[in-house]
Design brief:
The chain is mostly helical and 120 residues long.
Length: 120
């Protein structure tokens, strides 16, 4: 279970502090959102392929670098499986996709499904 003490301890890890110091919060908020590529509507009406085409590694890192790593992460509020979203995102920002996946799997048996239906 994720609680405030656990969040604070994870946030205090050296690699997280280094990431926070690497870019000012104002600079992070100025980064434009990366929109996920989608199949063209005219093409997708002819098949049942996945609509979202995902992000490249570079795009994912750019999008993750928008995260402010808040001390009280409201992005976790209401998550029914209590995914530690900031730790997941910060691992992506540093390019450690395997560790990011491990964070998801700590609390979710079906991360691929959750990634498609979660409104966050």
């Amino acid at each position: 279970m994720i609680n405030k003490e656990n969040i604070a301890a994870l946030r205090a890890e050296a690699w997280r502090e280094e990431l926070r110091k690497s870019k000012k919060a104002k600079d992070r908020t100025d980064i434009p959102r990366v929109h996920m590529h989608e199949l063209d509507a005219a093409y997708r009406i002819t098949n049942k392929e996945e609509v979202n085409m995902g992000l490249t590694a570079e795009e994912a890192v750019t999008e993750a670098s928008r995260c402010l790593d808040c001390p009280d992460p409201t992005c976790m509020t209401g998550c029914p499986v209590e995914i530690n979203i900031p730790t997941f995102v910060k691992n992506i920002e540093r390019g450690d996709f395997l560790q990011a996946a491990k964070v998801l799997k700590q609390t979710s048996a079906l991360p691929a499904v959750c990634g498609r239906v979660c409104p966050q």
